[in-house]
Amino acid sequence: MIGTRRTVFVVPVAIVLIGELIAASAFALPAARRAHPWPLSIAVVGDSYTAGSHNRVVWPTLLAQRTGWSVSNFALPGAGFAADGGGGHAFTYQVDRAQGARVRIILIVGGLADDGLADTGPVTVGAIDTINKIKVGGQRALVVGPTWYETPVPDSVKRVSNAVRKVAEKAGVPYLDALDPPWLTRDLMDLDLSGPTDEGQSVIADKIAAWLRTEVAG
User: Fold this and answer.
1) Are 128 and 167 contacting, i.e. CB atoms less than 8 angstroms apart?
2) Which CATH superfamily is domain 37-216 in?
């Protein structure tokens, strides 16, 4: 009988201790996740600078390699907030595809397809639609403006950057200016200036990685 009473006494104590450990773990896990919210899952929306032209590797691939994040690239040549690459592939179309990947963040990286428009009105409308679609889908939107390869930056490129910046700021979405100063130089561009070289892609990857760490690591 004595042995039985000891067993009855020890088992509840063990249960209490296990319960305390579970409770402590449940408390500590969210705190750890807040401090280290990795790995990230990111989908990239963009144009030929992101899709690549004559490249062996593009910056989203380098971003994934250098950070360990999951990065899916949905960029298409000739696409923009208003420009659709001649096939209906504007950024809203890319966002539809990106949302199917069930990512946490959709990163919109502006290019040069929109700078041929005489009026930035369609760019503004396209930026509003793109950001709203991401928000409604439950992902976090981040926006990088178009970049260039020399100074001074053409007014047409500045106008697109400013139009998209205003939309992002009004929507409360972080915006990274890639024009002040331009990230690229002629040495980092293909001979026909159609897009970044592999070295240029590497520069873009590092710039965006550094910015993302400040925006999402906290």
Assistant:
1) yes
2) SGNH hydrolase (3.40.50.1110)
